[in-house]
Amino acid sequence: MSGFFKSSIGRKVAMALSAFFLMFFLIIHLAVNITSLFSVELFNQLSHFMGTNPLVQLALQPVLIFGVVFHFVMGFILEIKNRKAIGISYAKNNGAANSTWISRNMIYSGLVILAFLVLHFIDFWFPEMKLKYIEGDMTGVIAGTQEFRYFEELQHKFLSPIRVGAYVLAFIFLALHLLHGFTSAFQSMGSTAGRKKALQTFGKIYAYAIPLGFIIIAVWHHFNHL
Amino acid sequence: MNLTLKIWRQKDSNAKGQMVDYKVNDISEHMSFLEMMDVLNEQLINSGEEPVAFDHDCREGICGMCSMYINGEAHGPDRGVTTCQLHMRMFKDGDTITIEPFRAKAFPVIKDLVVDRTAFERIQQAGGYISVNTSGNTQDANAIPISKHAADEAMDAATCIGCGACVATCKNSSAMLFVGAKVSQYALLPQGQIEAADRVRNMVAQMDAEGFGNCTNTGACEVECPKGISLDNIARMNRELMKANLK
């Protein structure tokens, strides 16, 4: 089976498997974050659970990090291999005649998402890791109070219009990436379901709804904090 | 109609090629694209120049030999046709037409617009066949029950003429539509089952060894394929390879 993942098809299957995992994670992430729009208490409780539960922190989180890193690394490996396979470029190439721009430029939408993830990790993940596992503060409360810190931190991050703008831009690129990636993952897995109208429609709804949800959260907290 | 042609000229596989401009006049819209190329070559021969080398054979869309990248598309702007079936009525007077060879590392240019597509032959030789005992007691293929649906799908896959338009048009120079079609035409039939696992493993391994790229499911190959080979064949090949590796 290890030989399978060294083949061109095996690498695409691995890419699709990590994509399915990440698309499932996006649903969970949005489901937790969207509670911040209507219940501070629920958002704080869910954030504290996700941030302190040993199963989430010690088992699911490393798998998620691996999934993210794997998807990016494999994406770059495939891109490099594909560029090597091309040879001399055409003097005139009419790609728009037979395929969508986004399907031909997944590497660029992926790079924007990667840049966003670096910002997102600097904003939320690294401070969390430092506070919990270096400074040893697992209480999840604002120092000197009994109040959870999660909602406060979330709103504070979205004070900056530049950060909100960067997040919105990144989510637009996430939507573009998902518009091709969702159905493409099915094709790579050997399923023709992604070529059927029903799944294509579902894929479009998913590709627009998930990023739109995150955009609403960022914009909502920006304006409701002012 | 009068046309300007921008054509890739390359003396041999080691030479550095370049685009060269030519003018052709009084081209009839009823001509095929290759007839227009014949007019150009007559013009070049009469003026003592080297004619443009290009592949062609049947000139009726069956052999898969013609292989030009015309105005940025494999086999030109028409759909469901090879270069030899492309008519000059798809162009208009005064047009500039860019003509290049099919590009891919695995399809090196031999001369001008002629490329070496023997990589496809080697992929076929790796497993694109069934082994049949021909010692005199061969079973009649019609005696084996096959559903109409499977027979139709296998026939559709078998219409691939191996022209290489899928590779030429793919942004990754992937050969997966070709290999998918060749794997599918046997995978769909009972006769192909016995060697199915070895076939897909060997053909994919040869495809990778030839240096073709990875499919990113843009669907460009399906659009440009003169025989309308479906992307479903790539999905089937992926399934076949997974199945073969789970055995």
From TrEMBL, chain A:
Keywords: Membrane, Transmembrane, Transmembrane helix. The chain crosses the membrane at residues 12-38, 58-78, 106-126, 164-185, 205-223. GO terms for cellular component: membrane. This is Succinate dehydrogenase cytochrome b subunit. Gene3D superfamilies: Fumarate reductase/succinate dehydrogenase, transmembrane subunit (1.20.1300.10). The keyword Transmembrane helix applies. The lineage of its organism: Bacteria, Pseudomonadati, Bacteroidota, Flavobacteriia, Flavobacteriales.
From TrEMBL, chain B:
InterPro entries: 2Fe-2S_ferredoxin-like_sf (IPR036010), 2Fe2S_fd_BS (IPR006058), 4Fe4S_Fe-S-bd (IPR017896), Beta-grasp_dom_sf (IPR012675), Helical_ferredxn (IPR009051), SDH/FRD_Iron-Sulfur (IPR050573), Succ_DH/fum_Rdtase_Fe-S (IPR004489), Succ_DH/fum_Rdtase_N (IPR025192). Residues 151-181 form the 4Fe-4S ferredoxin-type domain. It comes from the Bacteria. GO terms for biological process: respiratory electron transport chain; tricarboxylic acid cycle. This is Succinate dehydrogenase/fumarate reductase iron-sulfur subunit. PANTHER family: SUCCINATE DEHYDROGENASE, SUCCINATE DEHYDROGENASE IRON-SULFUR PROTEIN. Its cofactor is [4Fe-4S] cluster; [3Fe-4S] cluster; [2Fe-2S] cluster. Belongs to the succinate dehydrogenase/fumarate reductase iron-sulfur protein family. GO terms for molecular function: 2 iron, 2 sulfur cluster binding; 4 iron, 4 sulfur cluster binding; electron transfer activity; metal ion binding; oxidoreductase activity. It holds the Pfam family Fer4_8. The keyword Ubl conjugation does not apply. The keyword Magnesium does not apply. Keywords: 2Fe-2S, 4Fe-4S, Iron, Iron-sulfur, Metal-binding, Oxidoreductase. Gene3D superfamilies: 3.10.20.30, Alpha-helical ferredoxin.
